[in-house]
UniProtKB/TrEMBL annotation:
It comes from the Eukaryota. PANTHER family: SERINE/THREONINE-PROTEIN KINASE TNNI3K-RELATED. Residues 7-368 form the Protein kinase domain. This is Kinase-like domain-containing protein. It comes from Rhizophagus irregularis (strain DAOM 181602 / DAOM 197198 / MUCL 43194). GO terms for molecular function: ATP binding; protein serine/threonine kinase activity. Pfam families: PK_Tyr_Ser-Thr.
Amino acid sequence: MRKMRIYKEHYSLTKKLYGKVRHKKQCSAYDELILSKRGILNYFQAVWKDGYIDDWDYVNNQWKRIGETKVALKCLHNSQNITTDFLNEIESNIIVCKLSSGHVVRCFGITKDPKTNDFIMVMKLINGSLRQYLSNNFISLSWKKKLGYLIDIAHVLRDIHNKGLIHRDFHCENILSDFNTIVYIADLGLYQPANVKSSQNSNKKIYGILPYVAPEVLRGKEYTQSTLKICKGLRPKSNYKIPQLIFDLINQCWDAAPLKRPKADELLKLLENLYDDIIDNVEGFVIIKQIKETDEINKKSSFSIPSSSTSSTLIYYMTHPQAIYTSRLLDFKNLPEPKNADNDDLEYSDSLRMDFTKLDINSKDERN
């Protein structure tokens, strides 16, 4: 891809503790390489010559910058008339980033393209998505490691919700990974165009990626066949066997009734309890039995890990040719009342079935 240098006006959002976000106007240079184009955003990789503010230099009475560093530039389409709501989302992103111990992708500030007048967000550069990482490593990862990723994600969701915020576009491509066991949540609040006022849009237009939008959110809009199936209980399926306790928790998160889905803090406790049981590795624990059972089943299937170190352990996804995996306007009407999947679709591992909803998330005394 052709390299180009663009000089833009950079508006640095510097957050002081207990203070307001300041908008500081300056000129910055970027060497840019396009990364990808997705949804309402264009993604570029760039080299920020001076780098972001790191600390205050008390000797010279000025900000100290980190120096030359790679960043991601996220171009916002049709953002010439950017709304206050959208700027508030950026500010919320900065605040939640601090609360989540850095697991929300950091926004350093916003800049502006002089040719289009579209705004551009300057973000921390993360090289890949969690989906990419799992595609390459899922089969070889232990359930302890997989649950560790889920716990990190649940931690961030809890922090976001505790701040009174909602992600609104939470899906696998917005969960990023640096391929070093750390996951990051991206695009918090960036689910709709920057020139749309949330206050004027709450009951009118829905933006997102169809398979990841809750069915009750879609109701009242004109529908396609795929949306009808989601509301009628269609849920993703896989031939890869999953421990029943984890499988039941997944289905609980997919429940058609919003109030029956676990809250982020409840989900976190449930995942941590399962993780603790795996760490303890007590033979009588149900999750230990189920992991052994599913591992045996998967070893006998096409999902077994090849013995050769040069063999691939990739998981291949079949993408429907008409599928659109970018955030867009979803306009559906007359959808049916959401329902859960049929019981036949949920049957799995009868010998180790258990009512997961009755587990005490605050106690480990009866889990063996």
